[in-house]
Amino acid sequence: MDSSHTTPAFDIRGLSKVYRTEAGEVHALRGVDLQIAKGETLVLLGPSGSGKSTLLNILGGLDRASSGSARFHDLELTTASDRELTRYRRASVGFIFQFFNLVPSLTARENVALITEISRDPMPPEEALARVGLAERLDHFPAQLSGGEQQRVAVARAIAKRPELLFCDEPTGSLDSESGVRVLEAIAEVTAAVGATTMIVSHNTSIGAMADRVIRFRDGQITEVADNPRKTAPREMAW
Amino acid sequence: MRLAPLDRKVLRDLWRMKWQVMAIALLIACGVSVAVMSFSAQRALATAQAAFYEETRFADAFAQAKHAPLSLARDLAAIEGVSALDVRIAEVGLMDVPGLARPATARLIALPQDERAALNGIVLVEGRLPDPARTDEAVALKTFMTAAHLHLGQKLSAVIGGRTFDFKIVGAALSPEYVYVPAPESFMPDDAHQGVLWAPRPAVERVAGMSGAFNTAAFRLAPGVSVAGVLRDVDRLLAPYGGRAAYARADQPSHAFLDAELKELSTSATILPPIFLLIAAALVHLVVTRLVEAEREQIGLLKAFGYSDLEAASPYLKLAGAIGLTGAVAGGLLGGALGAAIVDVYRDYFRFPVLDVTFHWPAFAGASAVAVGAALAGSLMAVRRAAALSPAVAMSPPRPATYRAGLMDRLVRGAGVDQATRMVVRHLERFPMRGALAALGLASSLSLLVGTQFLFDSIDQVVDQAYFRTQRWTESVGLAEARGIAAVIEIGRLPGVTAAEPVRVVAARLKAAGREETTRLVGLDSDARLQQPLDARDQPIAFKGDGLVVSEALAGRLGLQAGDRVWVEVLDGRRPSALMTINALARDYTGFAAYLDRRALNRLMGEGDLANRAELLVASDARPAFYRAVEARPGIVGASSRDETVAAWRQAMAEAFRVTLIFYVGFAAAIAFGVAYNVTRISLSERSRDLATLHVLGFGHGECAYILAGELVILALAAVPLGVLGGQALAHGLVAAYSRDELRLPAVITAQSYGLAIAAYLSAVLLGGALVVRRIWGLDLVSVLKTRE
Question: What is the rounded CA–CA span in Å between residue B278 and residue B566?
Answer without folding.
Answer: 48
